[in-house]
Specification:
Blueprint (H helix, E strand, L loop, with lengths): L2 H28 L34 E2 L2 E6 L2 E7 L8 E6 L2 E8 L18 E8 L9 E5 L2 E7 L13
Parallel strand pairs: 1-6
Antiparallel strand pairs: 2-3, 3-8, 4-5, 5-6, 7-8
Length: about 170
């Protein structure tokens, strides 16, 4: 197949898709009242570029958000400061597993009356998680504090073992 034929096929398919798209918009506009209100309550819109036989995608899983944080390495001491404003201490969990410190938090959405709706909402709610690879640390040295929406975790790396001379016999 030569290059001109490929280009013509592409533009032909794109033109068909755009015509279908415009047709679907015109069809929806005809369903509006004089005042611009929808005659039907249907709010879905079909994707004109989706193949007709394409199966619907499965429902998306709940997203786990990253926790904003800073990590400071100062020699053998590691300090991690996580921002978790709006979280309660009871909804925070901290684990050390092998070489990582794992911070988990759950932030509850505010109560909203039934007859109210959000005008703006940029805040995130639900599960949050962050994993920090810290290498081998002294587990007994891990200390955490929570104040003013900041979770501060400190820990120390074990002192390196001193080398020992070996006599060869």
């Amino acid at each position: 197949m030569d290059e001109n034929k490929k280009t013509d096929d592409f533009f032909s398919k794109a033109s068909d898709a755009l015509n279908d798209f415009v047709g679907s918009i015109e069809k929806r506009l005809k369903g509006l009242d004089k005042d611009g209100e929808k005659a039907e309550r249907k709010t879905t819109f079909e994707n004109p570029f989706k193949k007709k036989d394409e199966a619907e995608a499965p429902a998306a899983k709940a997203r786990v958000y990253d926790i904003p944080a800073s990590r400071i390495d100062a020699g053998d001491r590691i300090t991690i400061v996580c921002e978790v404003p709006g979280c309660e201490r009871a909804n925070l969990k901290l684990d050390y597993d092998k070489d990582s410190i794992i911070v988990k938090a759950v932030k509850k959405a505010p109560e909203v009356p039934e007859n109210a709706s959000f005008r703006e909402d940029d805040r995130r709610y639900g599960q949050m998680e962050r994993r920090f690879r810290v290498g081998k640390v002294d587990a007994s040295s891990i200390h955490a504090s929570f104040k003013d929406g900041l979770l501060t975790v400190t820990c120390t790396r074990p002192a390196p073992s001193e080398g020992v001379g070996i006599t060869i016999e």
